[in-house]
Amino acid sequence: MAAYPAFAVTVDVVALTIRDEVLHVLLVRRGGEPFAGRWALPGGFTRVEEDLEDAAHRELAEECRVTRDDLRLEQLRTYGAPGRDPRPERVVSVAWLALGAHLPEPTAGTDAAEARWWPVEEALAMPLAFDHHQILTDGLERARAKLEYTTLATSFCPREFTLRDLRHVYETVWGSTLDRSNFQRKVLGTEGFVEDTGRYAEGRRGRPARLYRAAAGEGTVLHPPLLRG
Amino acid sequence: MAAYPAFAVTVDVVALTIRDEVLHVLLVRRGGEPFAGRWALPGGFTRVEEDLEDAAHRELAEECRVTRDDLRLEQLRTYGAPGRDPRPERVVSVAWLALGAHLPEPTAGTDAAEARWWPVEEALAMPLAFDHHQILTDGLERARAKLEYTTLATSFCPREFTLRDLRHVYETVWGSTLDRSNFQRKVLGTEGFVEDTGRYAEGRRGRPARLYRAAAGEGTVLHPPLLRG
DNA sequence: AAAATAGTGTCTCTGAGACATTATTGA
DNA sequence: TCAATAATGTCTCAGAGACACTATTTT
C-alpha cells in the first residue's frame, strides 16, 4: 500500500479532583526536553498495541496510584496543530478528562521530576508546557458544562456522600452558590441521580445527613438540566 | 530523543445535510483495499504539515466542492482502537462533524470509485467500512444533542431562511414535530439566535414568511435549552 | 439552651405546551 | 371566496428561585 506520514500519538490527561473545597488539577514537572522544568499535564506516548483509553489510564497510574474504579475517564479532544510540539516529528495528542473523589497524592513517575495537585486557578496562572493551558481550559469548560445536563457530579464524590457534599461539588466547580433546598428538590426529584443508602453521616455537627450513592447505570442525562446561576 | 511508535493519522468526516426534508450523510464507495467496494465516510491520511481541521476540509472538498463558508466543521472524537484498521500499521482517526445547507452533489474524488448523499436511515442499515457505523452514530447523536442547547441548527439553513425552514431542521434531525407557535416564541425570544432581514420569502403559497439570517457570532448557547419532544 | 446542620413546605414567577385567533397571500 | 400559510395571543401547568419553618444532632 501507499506510504503514509508517520505521526507520534500521545495522550494527555486533565485530572480533576476536589481537595479542601477547591478544584485541583494534577500537573507534573517535566524532567526532560522540551519544556524541561515546566509544569505539564500528565501524559506521554501511546504504545503501539495500546488502546488510547488504556494509555490515558496508564499515564495517570504512573503519576498517581489510582485504579480504574476510582475515576471516570472521558475523551476530551484531540490537539494536532503542526508545531504544537517543538520536536521535529509531528505529535498529535488525544486529551482525556479524568474526574475522581479526593484522589491520592501523586508519586513522581518515570518521566517527571515532580508531580502534585494544583488549585486550578493557580495552574491557569502559570506557564504550562506545549498547548496544555488550552487543553486545561477546554477540560474545565467540559466539566462545568457536563455538570449541568448529566449526573457527572457524582464522579467527584466518594462512594457514599451527603447531598451537602454533592452540592459542594457544583459550587466548587462552578464557583457559585446554590440554594440548598432547591438543590435537594432537584436532585431527589431526578430519576437515576442518587439512591438513598438508609444510613447517615457521622462525626459532623448538627443533624446527621442522609448518605446517598450514585445511582447505578451512571451517565444519566438531566431533563431539564440543572443550570448554573 | 527517544524513539516513539509511528502511527498513521487519518481524518474522517460525518457530513450531514438536509435534502428533500430528509437528513443525508455523504458516503464514498471505496476504490482500494481494505474494504474495497464498501461505502465509507469521506476521509484519508493527514499530511505531514497539515492541520487536522485543514485535512478534514480538504477531504471534503475532494468529494464535494464546498468552500469553508458553506459549512460548519467541528471535531467529533478520535477513534484509535488497535485493529480498527486491518492494515499492519496503527491508524488513529480524528473524526469531524460537518453541517451545511443543501450541499452540492458530490464529485467522485481521487480515492473513491463513487460518492453520494445517503439518507441516514439507509446509511445506518448498510455495512460500512472500518468502524464508520460507530462514527456515524456518534456524529448523529452529537448533532441531535447540540440542536438542543446551541443555535447550531442555523448551520443547516441557507444564508436567509424562514422560521418554517428552521423548524423543519429540528423536525428532520430529531424525527419529531414541534409546535409552530411555541417554536417561534422560543427562537425569537432568544438573543443571538436569528436576525430579521426585513424581507419576505417569495414563491410559496399562503402568507409570505419573514426571512431571517443566523445572528452574528454564531455558536450561542441556549439557556434554557430547546428540548426534544 | 444555643448553635449548627438537615429536611420539608410554600409562594411567586418564568417559560413550555396546547391550542385558538387573526393576518396575508395565491388559486 | 377559499385554501394555505404566517403571525400572534391565551390558558394552564411544571419547575426554578427565594425563603420560611421544622427536626435532630453536638456543644
Report on the architecture of this protein.
- The structure is a homodimer of 229-residue chains.
- Chain A has helices at 52-63, 120-125, 132-149, 163-174, 180-188, and strands at residues 8-19, 22-30, 39-40, 43-45, 71-79, 91-101, 112-119, 194-200, 210-214.
- With 229 residues, chain A is α+β, with helices and mostly antiparallel strands.
- Chain A folds into 2 domains: 8-146, Nucleoside Triphosphate Pyrophosphohydrolase (Alpha-Beta Complex); 150-214, Winged helix-like DNA-binding domain superfamily/Winged helix DNA-binding domain (Arc Repressor Mutant, subunit A), CATH 1.10.10.10.
- In chain A, the strands form 2 sheets. In chain A, strands 1, 2, 3, 4, 5, 6 and 7 form a 7-stranded mixed sheet that branches. Chain A has a two-stranded antiparallel sheet with strand order 8-9.
- The interface between A and B is medium-sized, with 32 and 33 residues.
- The first copy, chain A, binds a DNA duplex (27 and 27 nucleotides) through residues 162-164, 179-182, 184-186, 189, 204-210, 224, 227.
- Chains A, B: InterPro entries: NUDIX_hydrolase-like_dom_sf, NUDIX_hydrolase_dom, WH-like_DNA-bd_sf, WH_DNA-bd_sf, WHD_NrtR.
- Chains A, B: This is NUDIX domain-containing protein.
